[in-house]
Design goal:
Number of strands: 9
CATH architecture of the largest domain: 3-Layer(aba) Sandwich
Radius of gyration: 24 Å
Shape: extended
CATH topology of the largest domain: Rossmann fold
CATH superfamily of the largest domain: Response regulator
Low-confidence stretches: none
Strand content: 5-15%
CATH class of the largest domain: Alpha Beta
Helix content: 40-55%
Number of domains: 2
Order of helices and strands: HHHHEEHEEHEEHEHEHE
Protein backbone atom coordinates (compact mmCIF):
# COMPACT_ATOMS: atom_id res chain seq x y z
CA UNK A 1 0.00 0.00 0.00
CA UNK A 2 1.13 3.55 -0.68
CA UNK A 3 1.26 6.16 2.09
CA UNK A 4 -1.88 7.83 0.75
CA UNK A 5 -3.72 4.48 0.82
CA UNK A 6 -2.57 3.77 4.38
CA UNK A 7 -3.95 7.15 5.46
CA UNK A 8 -7.27 6.63 3.67
CA UNK A 9 -9.78 5.89 6.45
CA UNK A 10 -12.44 4.57 4.03
CA UNK A 11 -9.99 2.16 2.41
CA UNK A 12 -8.76 0.94 5.80
CA UNK A 13 -12.35 0.29 6.86
CA UNK A 14 -12.98 -1.78 3.73
CA UNK A 15 -9.76 -3.75 4.27
CA UNK A 16 -10.67 -4.40 7.90
CA UNK A 17 -13.99 -5.87 6.78
CA UNK A 18 -12.07 -8.45 4.75
CA UNK A 19 -9.17 -9.15 7.13
CA UNK A 20 -10.65 -8.76 10.64
CA UNK A 21 -13.14 -11.62 10.44
CA UNK A 22 -15.04 -13.31 13.23
CA UNK A 23 -14.31 -17.04 13.72
CA UNK A 24 -17.61 -17.98 12.06
CA UNK A 25 -16.92 -15.75 9.04
CA UNK A 26 -13.36 -17.08 8.74
CA UNK A 27 -14.65 -20.67 8.79
CA UNK A 28 -17.15 -19.84 6.07
CA UNK A 29 -14.39 -18.33 3.90
CA UNK A 30 -12.35 -21.52 4.25
CA UNK A 31 -15.43 -23.66 3.50
CA UNK A 32 -16.16 -21.65 0.34
CA UNK A 33 -12.54 -22.07 -0.78
CA UNK A 34 -12.70 -25.82 -0.11
CA UNK A 35 -15.94 -26.12 -2.10
CA UNK A 36 -14.33 -24.41 -5.09
CA UNK A 37 -11.44 -26.87 -4.97
CA UNK A 38 -13.80 -29.84 -4.78
CA UNK A 39 -15.60 -28.65 -7.92
CA UNK A 40 -12.36 -28.37 -9.89
CA UNK A 41 -12.11 -31.66 -11.83
CA UNK A 42 -8.56 -31.02 -13.01
CA UNK A 43 -7.41 -30.51 -9.45
CA UNK A 44 -9.23 -33.64 -8.28
CA UNK A 45 -7.48 -35.75 -10.94
CA UNK A 46 -4.11 -34.35 -9.89
CA UNK A 47 -4.79 -35.12 -6.23
CA UNK A 48 -5.93 -38.66 -7.06
CA UNK A 49 -2.57 -39.30 -8.75
CA UNK A 50 -1.02 -38.69 -5.33
CA UNK A 51 -3.70 -40.71 -3.57
CA UNK A 52 -4.94 -37.56 -1.85
CA UNK A 53 -8.34 -35.98 -1.42
CA UNK A 54 -9.84 -32.93 0.25
CA UNK A 55 -12.28 -33.56 3.07
CA UNK A 56 -15.48 -31.58 2.41
CA UNK A 57 -15.87 -30.97 6.15
CA UNK A 58 -13.56 -29.09 8.49
CA UNK A 59 -11.93 -30.98 11.34
CA UNK A 60 -13.78 -30.41 14.60
CA UNK A 61 -11.91 -30.38 17.91
CA UNK A 62 -13.04 -29.67 21.44
CA UNK A 63 -11.76 -26.35 22.74
CA UNK A 64 -12.07 -24.30 25.89
CA UNK A 65 -13.64 -20.87 25.85
CA UNK A 66 -11.75 -18.62 28.25
CA UNK A 67 -13.59 -15.85 30.08
CA UNK A 68 -12.91 -12.36 28.77
CA UNK A 69 -10.26 -10.38 30.64
CA UNK A 70 -11.11 -7.54 32.99
CA UNK A 71 -8.89 -4.46 33.11
CA UNK A 72 -8.54 -2.16 36.09
CA UNK A 73 -8.14 1.55 35.38
CA UNK A 74 -7.83 4.51 37.71
CA UNK A 75 -10.34 5.09 40.52
CA UNK A 76 -10.79 1.28 40.72
CA UNK A 77 -12.79 1.37 37.49
CA UNK A 78 -13.02 -2.12 36.01
CA UNK A 79 -14.04 -2.89 32.42
CA UNK A 80 -14.67 -6.13 30.57
CA UNK A 81 -12.77 -6.17 27.26
CA UNK A 82 -15.39 -8.46 25.72
CA UNK A 83 -15.00 -11.23 23.20
CA UNK A 84 -13.07 -9.11 20.69
CA UNK A 85 -10.49 -8.03 23.29
CA UNK A 86 -10.66 -4.39 22.23
CA UNK A 87 -10.26 -1.69 24.88
CA UNK A 88 -9.19 1.20 22.64
CA UNK A 89 -12.18 3.33 23.68
CA UNK A 90 -11.30 2.90 27.36
CA UNK A 91 -7.91 4.47 26.60
CA UNK A 92 -9.59 7.80 26.03
CA UNK A 93 -12.49 7.55 28.48
CA UNK A 94 -10.90 6.16 31.67
CA UNK A 95 -8.25 7.51 34.01
CA UNK A 96 -4.87 5.78 33.99
CA UNK A 97 -4.31 3.19 36.70
CA UNK A 98 -1.10 4.85 37.92
CA UNK A 99 -0.59 8.32 36.45
CA UNK A 100 2.81 9.98 36.49
CA UNK A 101 3.78 13.65 36.27
CA UNK A 102 5.88 14.85 33.36
CA UNK A 103 7.05 18.24 34.56
CA UNK A 104 10.28 18.84 32.64
CA UNK A 105 10.72 17.41 29.17
CA UNK A 106 12.18 18.39 25.81
CA UNK A 107 10.92 18.02 22.25
CA UNK A 108 13.59 17.96 19.55
CA UNK A 109 12.14 18.47 16.09
CA UNK A 110 13.33 19.52 12.64
CA UNK A 111 12.39 23.13 12.04
CA UNK A 112 10.14 22.17 9.10
CA UNK A 113 7.90 20.08 11.41
CA UNK A 114 7.68 22.60 14.24
CA UNK A 115 4.08 23.66 13.53
CA UNK A 116 2.78 20.09 13.12
CA UNK A 117 4.67 18.89 16.20
CA UNK A 118 3.16 21.62 18.39
CA UNK A 119 -0.34 20.72 17.19
CA UNK A 120 0.35 17.07 17.99
CA UNK A 121 1.61 17.88 21.50
CA UNK A 122 -1.49 20.02 22.10
CA UNK A 123 -3.62 17.02 21.09
CA UNK A 124 -1.67 14.85 23.53
CA UNK A 125 -2.36 17.27 26.36
CA UNK A 126 -6.10 17.12 25.68
CA UNK A 127 -6.12 13.32 25.70
CA UNK A 128 -4.10 12.61 28.84
CA UNK A 129 -6.90 12.93 31.43
CA UNK A 130 -5.22 12.30 34.82
CA UNK A 131 -1.67 12.12 33.40
CA UNK A 132 -0.11 15.51 34.18
CA UNK A 133 1.75 16.81 31.13
CA UNK A 134 3.48 20.19 31.37
CA UNK A 135 4.47 22.32 28.38
CA UNK A 136 7.76 21.00 26.96
CA UNK A 137 10.89 22.89 26.06
CA UNK A 138 11.26 23.14 22.29
CA UNK A 139 14.46 22.67 20.33
CA UNK A 140 14.13 23.22 16.59
CA UNK A 141 17.05 22.02 14.50
CA UNK A 142 17.96 23.19 11.02
CA UNK A 143 20.24 20.23 10.24
CA UNK A 144 18.23 17.00 10.80
CA UNK A 145 21.27 14.75 10.38
CA UNK A 146 22.52 12.15 12.89
CA UNK A 147 25.24 14.58 13.94
CA UNK A 148 22.75 17.46 14.23
CA UNK A 149 20.41 15.45 16.45
CA UNK A 150 23.30 14.24 18.58
CA UNK A 151 24.64 17.76 19.14
CA UNK A 152 21.31 19.35 20.11
CA UNK A 153 20.27 16.42 22.30
CA UNK A 154 23.56 16.46 24.21
CA UNK A 155 23.23 20.21 24.77
CA UNK A 156 19.62 19.83 25.99
CA UNK A 157 20.61 17.08 28.42
CA UNK A 158 23.43 19.19 29.85
CA UNK A 159 21.37 22.40 30.05
CA UNK A 160 18.03 21.02 31.30
CA UNK A 161 18.54 17.45 32.63
CA UNK A 162 15.01 16.54 31.42
CA UNK A 163 12.80 13.74 32.71
CA UNK A 164 12.17 12.63 29.15
CA UNK A 165 13.07 13.60 25.60
CA UNK A 166 10.78 13.31 22.57
CA UNK A 167 12.45 13.30 19.17
CA UNK A 168 10.68 13.90 15.85
CA UNK A 169 12.28 12.32 12.77
CA UNK A 170 11.41 12.33 9.10
CA UNK A 171 10.27 8.88 8.01
CA UNK A 172 12.11 5.72 8.99
CA UNK A 173 15.72 6.78 9.44
CA UNK A 174 17.58 3.91 11.18
CA UNK A 175 20.83 5.88 11.33
CA UNK A 176 19.10 8.69 13.26
CA UNK A 177 17.12 6.29 15.45
CA UNK A 178 20.32 4.46 16.40
CA UNK A 179 22.07 7.73 17.24
CA UNK A 180 19.12 8.93 19.35
CA UNK A 181 18.92 5.66 21.31
CA UNK A 182 22.67 5.67 21.92
CA UNK A 183 22.62 9.27 23.13
CA UNK A 184 19.75 8.69 25.57
CA UNK A 185 20.31 5.15 26.84
CA UNK A 186 24.02 4.43 26.41
CA UNK A 187 25.73 7.77 26.93
CA UNK A 188 23.04 9.13 29.28
CA UNK A 189 20.05 7.88 31.27
CA UNK A 190 17.18 9.85 29.78
CA UNK A 191 13.93 8.12 28.73
CA UNK A 192 13.23 8.79 25.07
CA UNK A 193 10.23 8.67 22.74
CA UNK A 194 10.79 8.81 18.98
CA UNK A 195 7.91 9.67 16.65
CA UNK A 196 7.95 10.06 12.88
CA UNK A 197 6.35 12.72 10.73
CA UNK A 198 3.76 10.10 9.75
CA UNK A 199 1.98 10.82 13.06
CA UNK A 200 1.06 14.25 11.66
CA UNK A 201 -0.50 12.95 8.43
CA UNK A 202 -3.57 11.15 9.80
CA UNK A 203 -6.99 12.74 9.40
CA UNK A 204 -7.66 12.08 13.10
CA UNK A 205 -4.59 12.42 15.31
CA UNK A 206 -6.38 11.96 18.66
CA UNK A 207 -6.02 8.13 18.80
CA UNK A 208 -2.31 8.36 17.92
CA UNK A 209 -1.72 11.21 20.38
CA UNK A 210 -3.48 9.24 23.13
CA UNK A 211 -1.29 6.17 22.59
CA UNK A 212 1.89 8.25 22.57
CA UNK A 213 0.85 9.99 25.80
CA UNK A 214 0.27 6.61 27.44
CA UNK A 215 3.74 5.50 26.31
CA UNK A 216 5.25 8.60 27.92
CA UNK A 217 3.40 7.85 31.15
CA UNK A 218 4.84 4.31 31.18
CA UNK A 219 8.39 5.46 30.43
CA UNK A 220 8.52 7.68 33.52
CA UNK A 221 7.06 5.10 35.91
CA UNK A 222 3.29 5.18 35.38
CA UNK A 223 0.92 2.34 34.47
CA UNK A 224 -2.03 2.64 32.07
CA UNK A 225 -4.03 -0.26 33.51
CA UNK A 226 -3.76 -3.39 35.62
CA UNK A 227 -5.28 -6.86 35.63
CA UNK A 228 -6.24 -9.26 38.39
CA UNK A 229 -3.67 -12.08 38.62
CA UNK A 230 -5.07 -14.92 40.75
CA UNK A 231 -1.67 -16.62 41.15
CA UNK A 232 0.54 -15.20 43.91
CA UNK A 233 4.33 -15.31 44.01
CA UNK A 234 4.60 -15.32 40.21
CA UNK A 235 6.86 -13.16 38.06
CA UNK A 236 6.59 -13.12 34.25
CA UNK A 237 9.69 -11.88 32.41
CA UNK A 238 9.59 -10.90 28.74
CA UNK A 239 12.82 -10.72 26.76
CA UNK A 240 12.95 -8.58 23.63
CA UNK A 241 15.38 -9.27 20.80
CA UNK A 242 16.68 -6.63 18.40
CA UNK A 243 17.86 -7.66 14.93
CA UNK A 244 20.49 -5.48 13.30
CA UNK A 245 19.16 -4.63 9.83
CA UNK A 246 22.71 -4.19 8.52
CA UNK A 247 23.99 -7.57 9.78
CA UNK A 248 22.07 -10.71 8.95
CA UNK A 249 21.54 -13.25 11.72
CA UNK A 250 22.78 -10.78 14.34
CA UNK A 251 20.55 -10.29 17.37
CA UNK A 252 20.91 -8.28 20.57
Amino acid sequence: LTNSQRNDASLKMLLNEQTHLSPAARMQKIKDFSDRLLKNKLLQRELSNWNMKIDPNMLEVTGKILPSEKLIFGDDCMIDVGEDGDWAVAFREKNLFKPARLEDWVVVTPEMYSFEAKKFIAEMMKSTRNFHLSDPRWIEIEDPTPEGYSFHMEKAIIDFNPQLMMVVVQGRRPEIFTRVMKKCYVENTVPCQVITDKCFTYDETEPIATKVAIQLNCKIGGSPWSIHIPVSGLMVVGIDAYQDSTKRNTYF
